[in-house]
Amino acid sequence: MTDAQTATQYVYRFGGGTAEGGTGDKNLLGGKGANLAEMASIGLPVPPGFTISTEMCTRFYAEGEAFPDSLTGEVADGVAHIEQVTGKRFGDVNDPLLVSVRSGARISMPGMMDTVLNLGLNDETVEGLARISEDERFAWDSYRRFIQMYSDVVMGLDHGLFEEALEIAKEDKGYFNDTEMSADDWKALVGQFKTIVADERGDAFPQDVHDQLWGAVAAVFKSWNVERARVYRRINDIPHDIGTAVNVQAMVFGNMGETSATGVAFTRDPSTGEHAYYGEYLINAQGEDVVAGIRTPQYLTKAAREAAGAKPLSLEEAMPDTFGELTAVFETLEQHYKDMQDIEFTVERGKLWMLQTRTGKRTAKAALKIAVDMAAEGLVDRKAAILRIDPMQLDQLLHPTLDPDAPRDVIARGLPASPGAASGTVCFDADTAERLAANGESVILVRVETSPEDIHGMHAATGILTARGGMTSHAAVVARGMGRPCVSGAGELRIDARARTLTVGGRTFDQDDVITIDGGNGQVMAGRVPTLQPELAGDFATLMEWADDLRGLKVRANAETPHDAKTAREFGAEGIGLCRTEHMFFDAGRISAVRQMILAQNEEGRRAALAKLLPEQRSDFAAIFGEMAGLPVTIRLLDPPLHEFLPREEAEFVGLAQELDVSVDMLKRRADDLHEFNPMLGHRGCRLGITYPEIYEMQARAIFEAACDVEASSGAAPLPEVMIPLVGTRRELEITREIVDRVAKEVFAEKGREIAYLVGTMIELPRAALMAGEIAEVGEFFSFGTNDLTQTALGVSRDDASRFLGDYVEKGIYARDPFVSLDVAGVGQLIEIAVERGRESRPGIKLGICGEHGGDPASIAFCAKVGLDYVSASPYRVPIARLAAAQAALAS
Ligand code: ADP
Ligand code: MG
Ligand code: MG
Q: How far, in Å, from the CA of 102 to the mean position of ligand 2?
């Protein structure tokens, strides 16, 4: 071991009015540790403790799951610190100090890693605790909890064994609730628990408190690498190498009788964003009882209790003084962190203790309301409000909601745990949910309650429904974080996971049945309920306006139908960045003319077919231009290989042969002629326009005639930007541009009016990026077609990549799917080169991006950095792009 290593500090103390570290030290202390330190140093009541840093986690794994010797002394000093602040001693048989050992990574992973409570109890200290607290029942309850948790987390025993023993003990006594267990009952159960441990392990439950502590510390570090934690990190894009910290903290007890309690709370409503305290608590209970759903938690406020029509008193009513203290803490925390907080607290014999605070996870709706409200309250400025919204989260609001006027066959009601509506087939386990979703099926995951093992199924499901569990249950918290609609605690449901049936109100649903859930009001409905399109209004619209004031990048949409164009405008698109004309060719009424063109033997035959298509294309463009009057519309001329339009089925060939009055054999021969080994790199893009100029001629004519007509009828012309695909050389663009210019001239002469237009190209081949200087001499704009550019630069076919890309991302070869988030290091360079060379030869050249990446926030940040003029995204992604563009501007 080197000197530098021995000198590293791994243990950081907090409590007793001070702390070594604070919120800024999340990387080192983990979120929980950093915030405990921060709360301690701003004078909030935090039980004293210490944090073993994430650096120790990394070192623990580097050294084969072992601790360096230096840690022993540091931990001893940490324990001494807690003893000094509390006046109790660890292992003292008269007045024992008990601690919790808690995990806590830089990024919160709720419920994913392990925690041990009440550590420091053994056969002797439990007696001391009983005497000093004058509460035998409490002492033995704490001891049995400790054995239960320690056996599970540290010794890896099946927790079911202990739960079963408890259930049997209750049944024997005829008890319904844990609270009915007496001191003697708990004492007897502790005896049984110890027997279980001895039987399972062949070794007694550890009585040495220091052994207990080191066992728990190692177990928490190890929990970083368990499967469910790895899955959670994969889903949430959290790196595997950042490690967790371990927090050792003096216990405070919510299970010391009727003046003690424990709870969780949010400083604002995490579902709606309403500025109302929100939370749940339990009297005479310990932390994990609230989340575990063993007892039904009580409401925090009187208003919430009344709204729910619940009887058990709220904290506000049961412990008004404590409630007052707690709400004062809420205000302090919001003023301090300037954000909504999610907290854990415990009341020990009337004294309030804070056990955790973190930035609260919230729905997109709540995120917008909180950001706009906090800006209005002066807590944050508009820039901070904008930076705080995750653009991707807005996706939740850009999906359809249930039509309020549609009939609903409501079969049950639960809690509105995570908003949004979802329909899907009923599915009873996570693995099946994942499998069905992979086949493109929508499923509703139906569980009695969810556990961290279900996380992959929750991610795959379109919605989650549970029979048990409150608003802060595992299902609710995870669903809100993922943006999945969730109804929890629908108690009327009888779920038989083995038989795969769901029974309610005398009706039974199985895996083939579709149900709908509304996470906004807790309804569960039979069948599929029709939905309404989302719109931009209220806080959403306000925040978008603020974003628009800040961003430099323009945002356009990819749209090829008037409907999409209209949606795009409603979401704030400032033009169309990509209108793919081939989609228009697939229309049932036109496909035969398209096929006739493709199969024609000569130019004359092609022209005859194109003449049929001209009026159709013209009316398509006219409708889109009508929606986009005064705005730029980039139209890409025909791009895909022609064989994509040909029939595949025998019957289709026969039908087409009749229609065109040719033989089936002849048609098939022609189709064979068109077969390509590698169509992606074959006869497509501008290569079609070069070999069959009459196709581009027809399209150009349709565009200019439509533009003239729209101007004539509405007075406002769009700005057509005619885009030539798959250009790799200057000459290709010259030849195709000549066609477009010639047709424009003809049309303007015929119509007696001139429309301003541009002709440009996509940059989607590496050669085009490199030769951008020359190409810009001919083209007036570049649009980066990053789908093809990624495909051609990486040499990865995007249609075949799904077989291996998952592995590539899992193994860290690509940080993210390069077709989703731009490969900035590689493909990004090609873009930078093209921007620089294009601008050099044509200053002021218009630059945009039209691949899928145009809607990805990280890629948008890159586009802003290299100085593109606009990004173009699918209509539903336009608001995401507007926000991401504003954030990119603020970051620069
Ligand atoms: P998680 O990250 O899963 O919430 P925590 O470490 O926060 O795990 O702990 C689990 C539960 O135990 C929480 O309800 C917490 O409030 C409670 N708890 C943790 N430490 C203490 C303590 N020192 N005293 C009392 N309760 C505690
Ligand atoms: Mg916690
Ligand atoms: Mg392309």
A: 8
AA letter at 655: G
Amino acid in the structure at residue 760: G
Q: Is the CB of 102 under 6 A from ligand 1?
A: yes
Residue 100 Cβ < 6 Å to ligand 1: yes
Residue 799 identity: D
pLDDT at residue 632 above 90? yes
Phi, psi of 719 (to 5 degrees): -105, 95
* Sign of the alpha-carbon dihedral angle for 549, 550, 552, 555: negative
Cβ atoms 469, 449 nearer than 8 A: yes
The residue annotated as part of the active site, out of 427, 486, 686, 850, is 850
- How far apart CA 539 and CA 522 sit, in angstroms, is 23
Tokens representing 567?
């949606």
What is the structure's pLDDT at 3? Answer: 43
Of the residues 474, 643, 708, 863, only one is catalytic, namely: 474
By most ligand atoms within 8 Å of CB, the mutation choice from 355, 358, 478 for ligand 1 is 355
Q: Are strands 501-504 and 507-510 parallel, antiparallel or unpaired?
A: antiparallel
Give residue for tokens 């500090």: 9
- Quickly count: other Cβ atoms within 10 Å of residue 449's Cβ: 17
Task: Quote the strand ranges of 571-728, DSSP E.
Answer: 576-580, 632-636, 719-724
Quick one: the chain helix, strand, coil %, rounded to 5? Answer: 50, 15, 35
Strands across the sheet containing 486-488: 410-413, 523-526, 514-518, 421-427, 443-447, 463-466, 486-488, 415-418
Over residues 552-563, mean pLDDT: 92
| The predicted structure's pLDDT at residue 293 | 61
Q: H-helix or E-strand containing 656?
A: helix 650-660
Q: What is the pLDDT of residues 435-480, one digit of tens each?
A: 999 888 999 999 998 887 788 899 899 999 999 877 777 888 788 7
Told to judge if 683 belongs to the known catalytic residues of this protein, a careful annotator would answer no
Query: For residue range 814-846, what is the model confidence (pLDDT) as tens digits?
Result: 988 898 899 999 999 999 999 999 999 999 999
Q: How far does residue 33's CA lie from ligand 1's centre (Å)?
A: 12
Using DSSP, state whether 748 is helix, strand or coil. Answer: helix
Pocket of ligand 1, candidates 86, 90, 102: which has the most ligand atoms within 8 Å of its Cβ, to mutate?
Answer: 102
Write down the H helix ranges in 377-532.
382-387, 430-438, 455-460, 474-482
Residue 474 is among the residues annotated as catalytic for this protein: yes
Nearest residue to 82 (alpha-carbon basis) of 24, 180, 14, 27: 14
Query: Nearest C-alpha to atom 18 of ligand 1 is from which residue?
Result: 287
Task: Report the residue among 117, 149, 246, 342 best suited for mutation to probe ligand 1: largest number of ligand atoms under 8 A from its CB.
Answer: 117
d(CA 886, CA 391): 10
- How far apart CA 568 and CA 377 sit, in angstroms, is 32
Instruction: Check pocket membership of 244 for ligand 1, CB cut-off 6 A.
Output: no
Of 47, 46, 49, nearest to 29 by C-alpha is 49
Determine the Cα–Cα distance for residues 748 and 754; give it in Å rounded to an integer. Answer: 5
At 287 the pLDDT is 81
Q: What are the C-alpha distances in Å from 645 to residues 17, 530, 601, 642?
A: 74, 33, 16, 6
